[in-house]
Amino acid sequence: MSEQRRFMVSSRSIRDGYASYDGDLHHHMARVLRLRSGDTVLLVDELGRSHQGVIDQVTQEWTAVRLVASSAPAATTATVPAITVIQGLPRGEKVELVLQKGTELGVHDFFLFRADRSVPRLNGDKLQSRLDRWQRIVAEAARQSERFDQPSVLWHPSAAAAAAAASGADLKLLLWERGTSAPLRDKLATLPCPARIALAVGPEGGFEAEEVEAFTFWGFMPVTLGERILRTETAALAMTAILQYIWGDI
């Protein structure tokens, strides 16, 4: 083929010089792209390693790839912050938009949590099913945007749990419509480039007072994006783009 296809894969699928795939990835390779034996592919795992491969066999159930070369993650001289988006679970497909577009914008990982004002209530098998789907969404977005890494998607049962999990970030921002009225650019202009940024966004309706207290307890700084009230999915993506423009790779 004239164009080498690129796929995000799990390192666990690679063993003894071969990689084998069934399910969604096999369907995409064999049924959608119609790849066949002899076609070359590039596999990138979640550790950032790249693997040059040649499709060895395609059956009804799986696709096998023979690896011909592997390389470690590319070294970079740029200092780009790792951004964690902490998103209160919104309704419908909004969370999927945040995951997809956030991955394209370079988000390092996502913490999703059940906020007091979250309408969806997930637990047990339903929660695991959603987590599997969300991970597939970021994997596809990473492949489409040709990233050499893949964000993780983690679930937290409350705002307090999510805030505590991100407490080690160098810069912690809480998008809150009742936050400080000082312009965001003034807040960020004097700060050094952080190694890790945590950005907390509420669901539809925003945060409850107790949730704001939990985030501020863990050192999150309340900020706003101006006088306009943005939808939850718009706020997360707008803030990510701003941070990537100031300190990242945009």
| Structural domain tally | 2
Just give the CATH class of the largest domain.
Alpha Beta
Radius of gyration: 20 Å
Tell me, briefly, the overall form. Answer: elongated
Total of helices: 7
Reported for the largest beta sheet, the result is: 6 strands, mixed
Low-pLDDT segments: none
The secondary structure category is alpha/beta
- SS elements, strand count: 12
List the strand order in the largest sheet: 1-4-5-6-3-2
CATH topology of the largest domain: Alpha/beta knot
Helix content range: 25-40%
Gross CATH architecture of the largest domain:
3-Layer(aba) Sandwich
The termini sit apart by 32 Å
Strand coverage percent: 25-35%
CATH-wise, what's the superfamily of the largest domain? Answer: SPOUT methyltransferase, trefoil knot domain
Average pLDDT figure: 89
The succession of helices and strands, N to C, reads: EEEHEEEEHEHEHEHEHEH
Domain Ribosomal RNA small subunit methyltransferase E PUA-like: 22-55
Subcellular location: Cytoplasm
InterPro entries: Alpha/beta_knot_MTases (IPR029028), PUA-like_sf (IPR015947), RsmE (IPR006700), RsmE_MTase_dom (IPR046886), RsmE_PUA-like (IPR046887), tRNA_m1G_MTases_N (IPR029026)
EC number: 2.1.1.193
